[in-house]
C-alpha cells in the first residue's frame, strides 16, 4: 500500500544572531533547532550564546 505521508507539525528552523549584522563584524552565529508549527506559528526569538562576541545575544528565525 502506497499512502501519502502526512506533513508533520515539527519543522527545522535556523536561528541567526541579530547583533552580528548590526556590528558589521565578519562571520555569523547560527543555530539549527526544531519548532512545533501549531504551538509557535510566529517566528522564534531566543537568547543564545554567540561564540564570536562571547556573550548572549538575540537570535531570530530566518527562512
TrEMBL record:
Record-given protein name: Large ribosomal subunit protein bL33
Molecular function terms, GO-annotated: structural constituent of ribosome
UniProt-listed Pfam families: Ribosomal_L33
Highest taxon in the source lineage: Bacteria
GO BP terms, alphabetized: translation
InterPro entries: Ribosomal_bL33, Ribosomal_bL33_sf, Ribosomal_zn-bd
Organism: Leyella lascolaii
Gene3D superfamilies: Ribosomal protein L33 (2.20.28.120)
Annotated GO CC locations: cytoplasm; ribonucleoprotein complex; ribosome
Family: Belongs to the bacterial ribosomal protein bL33 family.
Keyword Cell inner membrane: no
Record key words, sorted: Ribonucleoprotein, Ribosomal protein
Amino acid at each position: 500500500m502506497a499512502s501519502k505521508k502526512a506533513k508533520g507539525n515539527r519543522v527545522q528552523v535556523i536561528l541567526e544572531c541579530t547583533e552580528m549584522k548590526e556590528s558589521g563584524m565578519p562571520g555569523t552565529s547560527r543555530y539549527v533547532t526544531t519548532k512545533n508549527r501549531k504551538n509557535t506559528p510566529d517566528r522564534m526569538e531566543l537568547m543564545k550564546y554567540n561564540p564570536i562576541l562571547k556573550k548572549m545575544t538575540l537570535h531570530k528565525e530566518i527562512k
